[in-house]
């Protein structure tokens, strides 16, 4: 059985607070805003995590698993925090992902230790497709 958008927001808030971030660092939307912000719809007994902009849907992830949905929500938040951390700690001549990706893994581990392996696989897939390249930052 699916839980409501309000209950999903409560779950996310609890995870965020336990990890030391302010409540409502992530605001769950249940309809498109039109600016690319993801929103959640509950359809056919599944959670739909949808990105759309100006009426055009460009990504939809579908799952029956609340844990998977929470991973997607927290992952997006964690990437934002990790890349802001990289920006604040930038090292000239280094691919910024060398700083952001470990921070992303750290944040995900703090949110839910069971997510570490999935987060590491996600990073590894990215690096397989686009390896670190410090030469772009000299």
Write the layout of secondary structure elements.
Layout: H1 5-18, E1 39-43, E2 46-53, E3 56-63, H2 66-88, H3 97-111, H4 116-129
In short:
The protein has 4 helices and 3 strands. It has 138 residues and is of the alpha+beta class. The relative contact order is 0.12.
Main features:
138 residues, alpha+beta, 3-stranded antiparallel β-sheet, 4 helices
Description of the molecule:
The protein is of the alpha+beta class and 138 residues long. It contains four helices and three strands, in the order H-E-E-E-H-H-H. It has helices spanning 5-18, 66-88, 97-111, 116-129, and strands at 39-43, 46-53, 56-63. The termini are far apart.
User: How many whole angstroms does the radius of gyration measure?
Assistant: 16 Å
Note the gap between the termini.
52 Å
Mean pLDDT: 95
Fraction of residues in β-strands: 15-25%
Number of strands: 3
Order of helical and strand elements: HEEEHHH
**Structural class label:** alpha+beta
Report the major sheet. 3 strands, antiparallel
Into which percent range does the helicity of residues fall?
40-55%
Poorly predicted tracts of residues = none
- Number of distinct helices: 4
Which strand order spans the largest sheet, edge to edge or round the barrel? 1-2-3
Shape: globular
